[in-house]
């Protein structure tokens, strides 16, 4: 950490978690203050505020410097003293961070030993030059059939789970973190209630993956500004594991709408002119800076980002999901407790399906979705009291089996087992000639015994 710079004691105003300080240009060290630098706010001799509070420079405007205080400004006096530290925010990175949980300021919250003496790395660094990235070509298996079979998660992909409040998106995220074949899982929770934090931690422990998991958690009772640090800390640690140790890292972030709301709250305190629905004008840039950390590094590991984006009122045109959709490479749409096959999309799945997965993967995926769409049409005919043909009845049966065997997020099975179950389900409802699939694949994988029994 750099040598402490000169003290400044003229605090102009305190608004929310923002402190504005007057820094005369003529003062020694004034020119050394940079955007993103840390500062300590300490009580003066005539105040009762004796515990130093960490803050970060978020605006330089002439001789006025704006700081966001991580632990909040409650009880802070305008007679306090500000010391600029001359360095940016850092997070602990060492082998000892695995299995640990940290707050939005990087302090341990799991009751474990302090890591104050461990090496630190800066957060919120630049993204990797796109020309130096490797084309995504490796699959991350999650054992969730609706992902592995129909919308594969690919290494270096950035993809959100679009959902609404009340849906089990945290349960889905925890299951993926527990089952994914990644070397390291870095979890970032934003605005979580304690029950959610405890759920994630217990899930990782019970599934035996906590030893390869790092958690950064901002709880709803923590100061708002600390929410802004969680994605940067999680991504900085993930990037270092990928680059220096060659690890395949999966980053889980929930909920990026809470992150955007924190940006909006800070923007209001800074008196920024609001944009769409009160969000800051550079919301797209702020989100993109984080999502673009997803990368497959040449000669090293990879960072894959799976986030949750809640849609207020199930409105996909809301600024947060709307901007997210332009940045990311598809989405998983969680609706009514299941991953909707029609609303979900992985734009990188073609890089792995049939190339690193089994030869029948593409045909099974397309055929099952085709019949499930037909089942939806037949269900609509049934609800309108139209007569159903014998084929409609079989299509409806397939729809029920598809929902029961594949769509529930509690279902867990390897990809090859899911593909075999797909053939089994098709054979229970349809004849070979009705599948419209490549004959060599039918000859190899179609379970004729099941088909004979169901004729």
Q: CATH topology of the largest domain, what is it called?
A: Rossmann fold
User: What's the helical proportion of residues?
Assistant: 25-40%
Number of strands: 21
> How many domains, as an integer?
3
Residue fraction in strands: 15-25%
Structural class of the helices, strands and pairings? alpha/beta
Architecture of the largest domain in CATH? 3-Layer(aba) Sandwich
Q: How many H/I helices?
A: 13
Mean pLDDT: 89
Low-confidence stretches: none
Q: Judging from the principal axes of the Cα atoms, what is the shape?
A: elongated
CATH classification class of the largest domain? Alpha Beta
How many strands, which pairing sense, and closed or not: the largest β-sheet? Answer: 10 strands, mixed
Cα-atom Rg, whole angstroms? 26 Å
How far apart are the termini? Answer: 75 Å
Provide a concise account of the structure shown.
The protein has helices at 145-148, 169-179, 194-206, 230-245, 256-269, 283-291, 319-327, 361-383, 390-407, 415-429, 432-435, 439-445, 448-453; strands at residues 7-8, 11-15, 18-22, 37-42, 53-61, 64-69, 81-88, 90-92, 101-102, 120-122, 139-140, 153-154, 158-163, 184-192, 213-219, 248-254, 295-296, 302-310, 330-335, 338-339, 345-346. The chain has 455 residues and is an alpha/beta fold.
